């Protein structure tokens, strides 16, 4: 067995006793692997996240991302107040402005063409206040 | 949002720990962890059952993307290497951990992810293969190579 073949086995913590008995280099590597294994097992750290900062950043990013790509309708986790804001009927305020100014409106004349070129219907509509 | 809050509080340390091991810098790991939870917020309807495998997978992906975008800067400074044979036996556990942390950065992204998930996080080879979307035999080979590389790195720099 070559040292290279032995390394592959040692990497999987499989034995190559005959080779190890005669190769000090691979023996040292095997010992290093064993010590590293123990050290790696102790490296499972669970550092605390700086939660306040992280949460603030996440909320800001989430709002930005949500505006660009909103979650599907009916999704259980969509904040209700945000949905309500979108559904606010903004045009209502716009309609009220012209209502006060347009006191007298000209009747609306609608010309209706029929399939018969000799027959044309004129429809005169009295426009009430507030209609456009 | 209650589900999201619960998942974050339950797994934030795990995500941060894995990200730290993969990136080697706490600041980068914090950013990566935030990215992972942002993706969770956006894709929570795709996460069914235990979110842990999804979090592991996305953490590895985010860290790999991070690694490709910017060359990571070593947080721990490498000491001048003492390659004398006597030095091998005298290093402490803390020193070994420090060397392993730096050594992880010398590995390829797949090897690094495999060894972090297998040897540090303690997942099975089967679980690692599933998370990384590769064959078990490939994972076994990557881990074996990574362990040997790390062992040689520690020997060289101890």
Question: What do you see in this structure?
Answer:
The complex is a heterodimer of chains A (132) and B (158). Chain A has 132 residues and is mainly α. Chain A has a domain of 39 residues. In chain A, 52% of the residues lie in helices and 9% in strands. Chain A contains 6 helices and 2 strands, in the order H-H-H-H-H-H-E-E. A two-stranded antiparallel sheet of chain A has the order 1-2. In chain A, strand 1 and strand 2 form a beta hairpin. In chain A, helix 1 packs parallel to helix 3. Chain A is rod-shaped, with a radius of gyration of 40 Å. Chain A starts with a helix and ends in a 7-residue tail after the last strand. The model of chain A has no long low-confidence stretch (mean pLDDT 69). In chain B, 73% of the residues lie in helices and 0% in strands. Chain B has 8 helices and no strands. In chain B, helix 5 crosses helix 8. Chain B has 2 domains: 68 residues, Rna Polymerase Sigma Factor, Chain: A (Orthogonal Bundle); 71 residues, Arc Repressor Mutant, subunit A (Orthogonal Bundle). Chain B is mainly alpha-helical. Classes of the chains: A mainly alpha (132), B mainly alpha (158). At the A-B interface, helix 1, helix 3 and helix 4 of A face helix 1, helix 2, helix 5, helix 6 and helix 8 of B.
């Amino acid at each position: 067995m070559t040292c290279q073949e032995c390394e592959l086995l040692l990497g999987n913590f499989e034995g190559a006793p005959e080779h190890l008995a005669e190769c000090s280099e691979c023996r040292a590597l095997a010992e290093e692997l064993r010590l590293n294994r123990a050290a790696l097992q102790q490296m499972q750290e669970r550092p605390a996240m700086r939660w306040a900062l992280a949460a603030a950043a996440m909320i800001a990013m989430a709002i930005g991302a949500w505006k660009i790509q909103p979650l599907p309708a009916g999704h259980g986790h969509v904040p209700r107040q945000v949905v309500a804001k979108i559904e606010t009927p903004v045009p209502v305020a716009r309609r009220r402005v012209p209502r006060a100014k347009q006191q007298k409106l000209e009747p609306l004349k609608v010309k209706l063409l029929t399939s018969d070129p000799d027959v044309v219907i004129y429809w005169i509509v009295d426009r009430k206040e507030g209609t456009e | 949002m209650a589900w999201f809050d619960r998942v974050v509080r339950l797994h934030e340390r795990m995500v941060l720990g894995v990200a730290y091991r993969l990136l080697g810098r706490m600041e980068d790991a914090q950013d990566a962890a935030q990215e992972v939870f942002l993706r969770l917020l956006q894709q929570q309807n795709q996460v069914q059952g235990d979110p842990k495998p999804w979090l592991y997978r996305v953490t590895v992906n985010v860290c790999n993307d991070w690694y490709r975008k910017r060359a990571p800067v070593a947080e721990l400074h490498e000491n001048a290497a003492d390659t004398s044979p006597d030095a091998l036996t005298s290093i402490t556990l803390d020193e070994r951990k420090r060397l392993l942390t730096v050594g992880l950065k010398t590995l390829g992204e797949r090897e690094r992810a495999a060894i972090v998930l297998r040897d540090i996080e303690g997942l099975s080879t089967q679980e690692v293969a599933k998370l990384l979307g590769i064959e078990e035999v490939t994972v076994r080979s990557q881990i074996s190579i990574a362990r040997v590389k790390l062992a040689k790195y520690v020997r060289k720099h101890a």
